Every structure is written in C-alpha cells, then in structure tokens.
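Posting for a labmate who doesn't have an account.
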Amino acid sequence: MTTPGSQHFAASRPDPAEPAPEWLPLDRRTIAASTVVAAGALAATAVPAGSGLLLGGVGLAWVLLWTIGGTILGAAATAVIETARLAVTRYRVDAHRIERRVRFLSSSTTSLSTGRVRNVEISADLVQRRMGIATVRLASGETDGSRLILGALDREVAEELRRHLVAERAATDTSELVRLDPGWVRYAPASVMTPLFGLLGIGIVFQVADWFGAVPEMLEWIWDRIGDLPIPVIAAGVLVLALVVGTIASVALFVENWWNLRLEHHEDGSLELHRGLLVGRHTSFDGRRIRGVTLHEPPGFRVLGAARLDVVASGVGTGKDDEGKKKQSPALVPASPRAVSADAAGTILGEPVPTALRAHPPAARRRRLVRAGAVVVAVTGASLVPAVIWPWLWWVPAVALVLSAASAIWAALDNARGLGHEITGGVVALRKGSLMRRTDVLGRDGILGWNIRRSPLQRRAGLATLVATTAGGSGAFRLPDVGREQAPALWRTAGPVWDHLAEPPG
C-alpha cells in the first residue's frame, strides 16, 4: 500500500516487460486545507458585508444568517467540490512521462514528457505548510509554457518528484546568488504600479458601497467636508490619497512575494528560487532553457538606482499558455540595488551585463518629439471643449497645455536616451522604453533569427525596427528605430544564414 511520503518514482530506463506504474491519488489533506482557506476568505468578506447590511437597516438576526450561514455553506461546498475532485483525479510518473487523469462524465488525460519538463514550482500557503502538503506546477520546454498542475501532494512526495525531474542538476554544486535584504522594501513604492494600486483601492471602496446603495450618502458626506476647497486642491488630495494607499499595497505585495528570498545557481547553469511569506514557493529553472535576462528600470527605480531582474526561459513568461493556465513567473530578483541584479544577471549569462550601449541615430529622437507634439495638440484640443461650454473653466486648456507639454516632451527625450543596444562575444543587449524601460540581454546562442520592420516614415528617416526571436519569454524582443548602418551587426548575431540581408530593403 502507498502511503504519503512513500512514493518512489521509476528509474531512468524501466524494463519494457514491467507493468506500467500505478495511478496514484492526490493527498486527501488538500480537502481540509482548501476548506479552511475558503472559510477564512468568506469570513473576511462577511465582516464588511455584515457591516453594510447593518448600516442599511437590516436586522441583526438576518445579518448573522447571511454572514455566518453563507460562510458555513461556502466552506461546505468547497469541501464537497474538493472531495469530488480528488475522487476523479489520479496521476502517475515513470521514466518518460508524467500524467494526470480526470475521470468524471468523460475521461481527460494530461501528459508531459519528463524530458521536456524545464521548470518545476512547488508552492504551499500557510495552511498547506501546516498540514505538510504542497502544490506542484510543471512547465514544459515549449514557448507557450504548457503546464501540468498537481494539487496537492505530500511535501516529501513533491520534493521527491522535483528531484526525479531535475536529478542531474540537483546533484551539482550550488552557489548563492542573492538573499533578501529587508531594506529593499523601500524600492517597492517606486514602481509605476503604485498609483494604479491606489486608484484600484479607492475604486474597490466605491464598489462595495455601491453593493449596499450607499454611494450617494458617501459622496454627500465627503463633499460636505471638502466642497469648499478649490478643485486643484481636491485633485491633489485625491492623488496623495491614491499614492498613500498604493504605497501600502506595494509594500504588502513585496513582503508577500519576496520574503525569505534565496536565489541559488547550479554549476550547470540551472537556478533554484525560494521565496514567499504566506505562500511559499520553490521554483527550479533548467539552465539548458535559459535564453537571457531582463532588467526592468522604470523612472522611480532609476532615481533610486534600483532594478528588477527577470529570466528569459522556455515555458516561463507573463499571461496564459494555450490551455488558459497562468504561465510560470519569470521574476528572479525584486526591486533591489541595480548592482545586485546586474551581478546576478552576469553570473547567469556567464559574462557581465553591458553597461555602455550604442545610442540610436538623432532621427529616433525626432520621431519621438513629433509624437509628443501630437499628444500635446490632442490633449489641449480636447480640453478646450469644457472651456467653450463653461467659460469660467478658461484655465483648463492652459493647465492641460503646460502639463501635457512637460510630461510628453520629458517622456520623448527620456525614451530617446534609453534607446540603445550592444553586442559582445556572448550576448546581445537591447534597451528601450521610458515609463516601462527594460534591457533585454539575450544569449547569442539562443537567438533564432530577426524580423525587420520598416514603416514608410522609418524608411524615409533611415531607421528600422528589429525583433529578435528566441525560444523564451514572449519569444519576440523588439528594438525600435535602429539606424540603417547599425542593423546588419544585430541580425548577423543569429548566424551566417542571415548574411543575405546585408542590404536592407529600400
């Protein structure tokens, strides 16, 4: 009989005469874990919901019925669903394949070749850790990152499965690249997402109020206190409030995602990433499928001298794969001093990240300034409408002109300064962007080819957009407005087969 923690996976090449391995069940402790998590989430939701019902004049007995009864009913439904899921789900592993089968009204089998598994992630929230179980996510080597999820297994079984799938690199020597410095939390609010988090938080408050029809009363209460203030002061106050809320959210997300961070590098180039506070994650990246790294440096990070590091690898990226499942996160190092991310990137790539990049021609800057001018004209023109309807808003177009001109011109010049590339013996560095500035450093061995795009205006200016194709991340890395004389050196990094493009189309 198989007991938790006692499964053993097949050796490297089983005897064909031996029977196929048996189908194994998932760990039944996941029923209790999922039920506890669902009950906690429902209880947390019941508090504001119950408060809103009481403020709306609903009797206490009805409020208790809806909140406590709803929590119990939701938790019971979760337990039933999880019990049914475990009853119809089985998995098995041999030397060549890992399979998950679901038999309900029809039978569905998901299969991954063990030789194609490139990334393994073991995650466990607080309840799962307490119960000794974990969820295993496997990503294949295809660009779309096809995934197979086993939730949940005994923690020892999950670790044994990881070792079985990455046995070669698990035995190699390791070195620690990065360990979390708690002081890095100061970089979290510098993200471009901070004000968006703040606005989202304010929007959630209004949405909850709308559920109970309390928006008019809330707006009346707010207006009674700030209605006498000038509109610019009110706008500034809303912005400050959004930044405060966004800062709190950014810090909380940073702590949850990156607490206990430890990034290890194996001798064969593979990586092991440990991180997470409430949900602990242990992710393995196959060094044979790492194609490069990306340094993210939005304006706030650049002011503070910080950067975030992502990996470019097969089966890893943002968004969802072809099966609608979320791809494995590419994040390796959070916002931290740029030297930390750059040093880690240099070790992963096998050579230092280029620092001095080749600038693009002046025509690239002119194109961005022209676009900035068009934005200023459009924004100022739109702001004239309220001034024509209500003459007392004469100041709106003037403010719109000043603010749009300052921000658009700054963004255009900053974007132009950020454009650049460099080619070394082993890597190609591509940098672009302003608000979302990123430097993609790709290994030359992993570049499959280049796509060349030239609009009529680009041809007239002697520029071209080059897109590097590689089996990792999004699969395409765009570098806009490269000079005509600079382009050949870039596309030749894909090999001599591209030499026929020495003369770009006119």
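Reply:
Got it, the structure tokens are right above this. The first strand starts at residue 24 and ends at 25.
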